[in-house]
Structures are given as structure tokens and as C-alpha cells.
Amino acid sequence: MCRGRRDAVVGLALVLLRASAKGLFDEITPAKPRVRSELVLPPPPPPPPALAVAAPLRPIPPSPWPGRGAVVMERGRPAHAKACCLSALLFGALRFAAAAPAESVERLRRFLFPSGAAGGGLAWIRGLVVVVAAVLYAAEAARSSTLRYVSDARDADAVDAFLRGAVDAAPVVAWTAESYHYETTTRGSGDDRRASTRRVVTAVARETWAYGAWRDASGGVDALARAWRRACSVTPSARRALVKIRLRRSLAFDDAATADEYAAALAAFARRHRRRDVHLSLEQDFSFKGWDEDERILGIRRPLGAPGALWSPAGFWAAAGLGLTVPYRLAFERKCAVASLDVAKRVRSAPHVAREADPVI
Questions:
Q1: Residues with Cβ < 8 Å from 266, sequence gap 6 or more?
Q2: Which of 186, 97, 78, 90 has the alpha carbon at shortest distance from 136?
Q3: Is residue 254 pLDDT above 50, yes or no?
Q4: Exposure check for the chain: N or C terminus, fewer CB within 10 A?
Q5: Which helix (H) or strand (E) holds 195?
Q6: CB neighbourhood size of 88 (10 A)
Q7: What's the whole-model pTM score?
Q8: In the chain, where are the structural domains located?
């Protein structure tokens, strides 16, 4: 009994000693404060100031001068359909004049002259048919593109010289104002009275536009010379000695400000002439000094020798006189390559600042 009390007293003493020792430790070493771990983000940066949005570039208005040239007027390989039809007509007329029976010729005479006013025999009817067919045949041959090419044949040096002159020539922009009115005149009287209206031009004025500067936009003489020479080598096995060079000229504005200035100058030109008469018509055109107005050149890539004389106006008309214009043209097409060259220029109102890609003019 005494032993159990003693154990209880000892245990209680140990508890009190432990408690006192803990309190003393807490007084000497203060407890560390508990820190809550949190992720602190920096404040977001202020938004950047609004950037000034540049005004969108205005598109350059289209050129008021439409592109012209043989390249848009003729096919690469003409079919010569009119020449075939008129050749057939000519051979048919010759056959009619030589072998048509008298009854057929008489029916034709009555069809052409129902009143019978035309006298004489029937031989002149035969001759008339041949003459009409021959005139139509010759008229078509004179207007053919083949004759235009063989009439302007040039060797390689002459072609390059022409291209150099076309590239170096300054464009000339011209305006033409035509003042006019309409007059109506009456002839006859009663039921035979007829009225006709005609246009009367009273004044014509021309003026050129003074632009600031111009530059070539076709790539230069070297690029054009390479283009028509490259057309000769269609395939390694088929190199053409002749090249049908089709020329085309074009002129455009270099920037929108130039287009605005041009429109204002043209409007001022129209206002100066609009009160001269009732009506006014304006025409805009441009030209290059030394330009080939036919816009067709036959380039000779290498010497042709004696057979080259066939591709000339004399050879063309000799073949046409024998009725062989279609075979001549087909043979000419087989001998030729085709090259289309565009001589382009740009104009601007302010003096042009030369860049690395632009030739200094």
C-alpha cells in the first residue's frame, strides 16, 4: 500500500517537473511564428500605348491608256481561214470562166442584170467573175499579217537597236479636245422630203501632259533581247531562224498621287474647252519616239542564205500570183517562232528617286 502511493507520488512529481521544464523553455526560446506560404505574383505591366495605325495604301488606279498591240489582235498560229476561202473562190472563178456552159453563164447574166440592159456576148461575164474573185483575193493578201512581217525583216542587231530606242524614249502623253455640234438639213419636198444629220467640228485643241519623271518597267534592253532570242529555241532539236516579234506598249501611273494629279489636269483641260461648242469629246493617247506603229517585226536570228529571199514581199506576191498564198503562209509559220514583247513605262508627278532595282534615267 505504501509502495503504490510512493509510485503515484513519483509519477505526479515527474509530470509536474516536465511541465515546469517546458514552460521555462518556452520563456527562454520564443516559438517561431508560423508563416503561410503563398505565391505572390508581380502586378501586370501596364498596357502599351495604342499604336497609331497607318492609313492603308490607296490602290493605284488603272491606266487610262488601254494596252494596244499586235499581241491582242492576232493569234499565235493563224488559221488563215479567209485566205483558204478566197483561194477556193478564185479557183472556182477560173474554172467557171474556162469550163462553164453557156446556159450557166446566161443565167448568171440574167441574175445580175434582170432588165437585160447589159448587151454583148457572154465572155465579159466570165471575165467579170474572174476579176471580182481576183480583187477579193488580192485585197485579203495585202492585209495579211504574213505580208506585214516579211515587209519588216530585221537582223538581230537591228532588232536590239530598235528595242534600245524604245526603252530609252520618253513617253509623250497627249490630249485632244474636239468641239462639235450636229446640223440637220432637209432635201426635197412633200413625200420626197428627206432629213439628214451630220456632225460639224468647229475646233480641235491638242495638249501634252507635263509629268515629273518616268522610268522603264519592262526590265531593260537585255531582258527584251533575251526574250525574243529565247523564243528561237523551242526544243534543242528544232531551232527557228525566224521570230515573229509582236510588240506591245503600255503606260501606267507609278503611284496614286500621280493618278490624282493627272485626273485634275485632264479635268482642267476639259473645262478650258467645254464652252466652245455644244458638244465636247476628249481623247487620251500616248506614244514613244521611233515606235513601230505596225507593231510587228520579223527578227532574223541567224543568216538564212539564198533561201531567205523567199521570205520577202517579192516572194510573198510571187506565191500569191500563182495562187499559192495558203501554202506559202503555212510554210512561213513552220519556219517562225513567236515572241511577244511588252515595252512598259511608268510616270509620276514628282521626280523619281532612283532605287537599286530601277535604272537611273
A1: 175, 209, 282, 284
A2: 90
A3: yes
A4: N
A5: strand 194-208
A6: 13
A7: 0.67
A8: 81-143, 152-187+194-361
